[in-house]
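FAQ: What does a ligand-bound record look like?

Like this one, built around calcium ion:
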Amino acid sequence: MNNKKVLLVEDESSLRQLMKTYFLKEGAEVIEAGDGRAALNKFEENNIDLVILDIMLPEYDGWSVCKRIREKSDIPILMLTARSEENDKLFGFELGADDYMTKPFSLKELIARSKVLIKRSRKEMDLKDILILENIKIDRLSHKVFINNIEVEFSPKEYDLLNYFVTNKNQALSREMILNGVWGYDYYGDLRTVDTHIKRLRQKLEDEGDKITTVRGFGYRFEVTE
Ligand code: CA
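The answer part, i.e. the structure of the complex:
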């Protein structure tokens, strides 16, 4: 886990310190948060590779933190809980958590699972450097977009918006989710900003523009056949 940034979100400082010791031994860089609000701030400020997320937390709970991270990122999230109800687990996976551990847990196992999650996400990212969706090709290394094999200029926001759609393809996305995912939580713009940009994105996508469909009364969906 050399130089991987792990965000440890746990309000019990003794457990947090213990986990920190284990992650540091593995060569990871550890960033700590003791409540949900701090977790979201630290997540924004750092280029995190893995989140270890307790559920019962002051400020925002782990569910809210997980949900908000998932609106903008697909980095691995491993959730921790003191309770063992199966419902918690299902709810966590529904919100997009990748793995789940019930307290008390073995720290060795936590490390092992963390390594798997990091490796898996790296692999996925590597495969996705060049993304082809029918007639749209996105080169995520150079940030170039090709429509029917012809390069089309995208503004940084249009590029981010396209990437957000591609990452969350075939899902109904509310305007608020899109605004948060592309512009960030601290952006106080009008939701119409989203509509304006989507209109432009549709034009740039030319024939492929109809992949962005309107979900009435909700938002948009980027539709591709898989
Ligand atoms: Ca707790």
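Follow-up question: can I read anything off the structure? Yes, for example: The chain has eight helices and twelve strands.
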